[in-house]
Each structure stands twice: as C-alpha cells, then as structure tokens.
Specification:
This protein is an alpha/beta fold and 335 residues long. It has a single domain (7-29, 111-327), classed as P-loop containing nucleotide triphosphate hydrolases (Rossmann fold). It has helices at residues 17-25, 39-43, 55-65, 79-89, 93-107, 124-130, 143-150, 160-180, 191-196, 198-209, 249-252, 255-264, 266-271, 285-315, 326-334, and strands at 7-10, 30-31, 112-116, 135-140, 186-190.
C-alpha cells in the first residue's frame, strides 16, 4: 500500500490528539509535525494576499506564514528557507501551506505528511478546499475526562461549562462529518479504545490510511522530541501508553460539574459508549442556562463560518487547492 494523501488529526482539545499525532509520526513513512499557528491565521486573512500569481504576493504570504508566533520554528525548519520555498513554488494557498508540511516530512525522512490541531474539528470544509484529497482522523474522548483535563490547562480560556459546550460541539462535528464524508476520507476513534488496545486500533487506522501497520507506532515516547519541551502539560507522553487517565473525571470534576454534564450531555455520552455514573449533583437553573447559552454561541459561530466557506467556494475566482500530491495534481488538471 502506498498513498501520499495529507492526514489531519482533529478532536476536542485534550482528547489525546497529541499522543495520536506522535503515534502516527513514529510510523516510518508518516510525518506529523508539532502544532502550528499559520494555517488558520493565514487563511482567515487570505484577502490581503491575492491569488498568489505574482512573486510579490507569494513573498507576502510567505512572510506571514513564517512570522513570529507561527511556530514554523517548532518544526525545526529555517524560516528563511521555508519563505523562499513558498515564494518560488507556491501557486495556490494550499501549496503555500502544504510546502511547509512537505518540507517537514522531507527533513524527517518521511514520504507523507499530516497536520494535527484540535481546532481543526470545525474546519474540515476549509481544509478540504485546500487539500481535496485529505484524510481526517477524529479522536473522541469521554467528555467528562476531557473537561476535567481542560480545567487544568493554563492556556485554556473557557470555564468548565464552556468546555462542556466545546466538547459537545466537537462531537456534533464528528457526527456531521461521519454522515457526509466518504469512508476513505473520514475515520473516527475513541481515546479509551486507543489506550486499551493500541495495536488493534492503530491497525484499523493504518488500513484507513492505506499504510502498513508498524510496531514503532506503539511507542510514541520514542519520538517525544517532536512536541516542544515548553509544553509541560504533555509530560505523560514520555512514558508508555496506558489507561490510567480514562476515569480521571471521577476526581477531576466537582459534583455540580459532573451532575450538569451528565444531565445536558447524558444522551451524547451514552451514544458514544460512556456509561453515566449518576454521582453528580443536580444542576441549578443558572448552570443549565449558562450551558445552553454557551452551546448556542459555539454552534452559531460554527454554522456562520461553514455558510461563509460554502458561499465563497461557489463563487471563488481563482483556485486555492494544493497541487502537490498525486490526486491533487489530477484534480487540478481536470478543473
């Protein structure tokens, strides 16, 4: 089996996507870089760069992609070299982004690249515009453990109630994508299954990716250096894969948080195979109202982005899709 399709790992933050990314990166053919801050940031400012038909436009987008804070440096790449590569070879926005990941794969001796960022769970439409042959892997974790983990993160801006709304929205996106995307484009998996039986779950993943399973994937700690050391909240990645945090929510959530989540998301939890404990405190009307407002805000914002993306895709005046992989080149030639 051999494929060069891009691979995107998505999921609610703190669902285990970093561990899964390392497992994929441990494969001898696959490269999964540390998280970047240039794809979404640059795409949302795309109007300022034009159609990339001139060197001036290409150098402008290259400068933005390699700007301070874009985290290209975390990939171990030279900003100057990456900027020059984009200026010389990019013909579309997809090219401009894909060339960075392609260079990361080349630097790591890999044949195929991917990208991992939890925020992508609601950006599948955008990524398919850029990479029409992309494959998506959505990792789902028990929402109670997910929220308990998010509570401990110094960088997370949401309250626990807001975190519940984010988890619910991510699961909603999972169901939407599973229902509308081809089986060879979208694949979902549960964190709990992954840590309980990594060999079986990763073998299924490799079948989806049209790759042969490799034993190296079972030891993600051996490629731990891909994740920047400053991200101390990933300390568990240095050890063996285990199930010790599967029920961390039993001590990580307050009784009122557990009661609220099992009330408003009980059906969703059970639908995904997570049994309710019934141990939480009955939620207050204030907490129920707060959750409803937060969920409504998240979903309205997402629907608005999807609608805008779809409208622009229908009326676009120049191509944005990458022309780097075998299938991308075929699609470009047919358009």
């Amino acid at each position: 089996m051999s494929s060069d399709r891009p691979i995107f790992v998505v999921g609610c933050p703190r669902s285990g996507t970093t561990m899964l990314g390392l497992m994929i990166h441990a494969h001898p053919r696959l490269a999964m870089p540390p998280e970047n801050r240039f794809v979404l940031h640059t795409w949302r400012r795309r109007r300022q760069f034009g159609d990339l038909s001139t060197e001036e436009q290409r150098r402008a987008i290259a400068a933005h992609i390699t700007r301070k804070g874009s985290l290209v440096k975390d990939m171990g790449l030279s900003n100057a070299a990456v900027a020059e590569l984009i200026a010389e070879q990019a013909t579309t926005f997809g090219d401009a982004f894909g060339l960075v990941f392609q260079e990361f794969a080349r630097a790591n001796g890999k044949a195929r690249w991917g990208d991992k960022r939890p925020a992508y769970f609601g950006e599948v439409d955008m990524l398919l515009r850029l990479f029409p042959d992309a494959q998506f892997v959505h990792l789902l974790r028990d929402g109670r453990a997910n929220v308990a983990s998010l509570k401990r993160m110094p960088w997370w801006p949401e309250t626990s109630i807001g975190s519940m709304a984010v988890w619910s929205t991510a699961e909603w996106c999972l169901r939407r994508d599973a229902a509308r995307l081809p089986a060879d484009t979208f694949h979902s998996m549960r964190y709990e299954d992954l840590v309980a039986d990594p060999r079986t779950v990763l073998t299924r993943l490799c079948d989806f990716l049209e790759e042969d399973f490799d034993e190296a994937m079972l030891e993600p700690s051996k490629v731990r250096e891909v994740v920047p050391e400053r991200k101390v909240w990933h300390e568990r990645l240095s050890g063996a894969v285990d199930s010790s945090t599967v029920e961390s929510w039993r001590t990580g959530l307050e009784p009122w948080e557990l009661g609220l989540m099992e009330t408003v998301l009980g059906r969703t939890l059970k639908r995904n195979g997570y049994a309710l404990s019934g141990d939480g405190k009955r939620p207050s009307l204030h907490a129920l109202s707060h959750y409803a407002k937060s969920l409504s805000t998240h979903r309205k914002d997402m629907r608005r982005r999807w609608k805008k993306e779809a409208l622009e895709a229908e009326t676009r005046t120049f191509p944005v899709a990458a022309r780097l992989t075998t299938r991308q080149k075929e699609l470009a030639g047919a358009s």
